[in-house]
Amino acid sequence: MCAEYVGELFTENNTPNIAAGIFRGLNYNFSTNETWIIDAAKVGNNTRYANHAEPPKDNCEARILLVNGEHRIGFFATKKVAVGQEILLDYGKGYWQHHPELSG
After folding, report:
1. How many other β-carbons are positioned within 10 Å of the β-carbon of residue 67?
2. Can you say how many angstroms the Cα of residue 23 is from the centroid of all Cα atoms in its chain?
3. How far apart, in Å, are the Cα atoms of 20 and each of 23, 41, 75, 91, 98?
4. Residues 45, 3: contact at Cβ < 8 Å?
5. 62-97: pLDDT as tens digits
6. CA 28, CA 18: separation in Å to the nearest integer?
7. Interval 11-42: pLDDT, tens
8. Fold that domain 3-102 belongs to in CATH
9. What pLDDT sits at residue 4?
10. pLDDT attached to residue 65
11. 3-state secondary structure (DSSP) of residue 101
């Protein structure tokens, strides 16, 4: 695993930073399942800056894991990633369907 996506845990309907994020064109929300979202807008690490890239330009994938009864998000390299290289993952079609305001 390269890193873990961390942040505050909220329910799908109770994420306080989503309106401000949409206004600024930013989104740090990552769904772990149908109910819970990790929001890294205020509390997080550098994984929140991973950018979207479709294959074959992506170099990482996100996996939702169940660890000690909690859903966690791990980022795993799919290619060799050099120190200082940007982490790129495919956000997936579902992301853009739920966030059309961010699609450019």
Report:
1. 9
2. 18
3. 5, 10, 26, 20, 16
4. yes
5. 999 999 998 899 999 999 999 889 999 999 887 777
6. 8
7. 877 776 665 555 555 678 888 888 888 999 88
8. Beta-clip-like (2.170.270)
9. 96
10. 94
11. helix
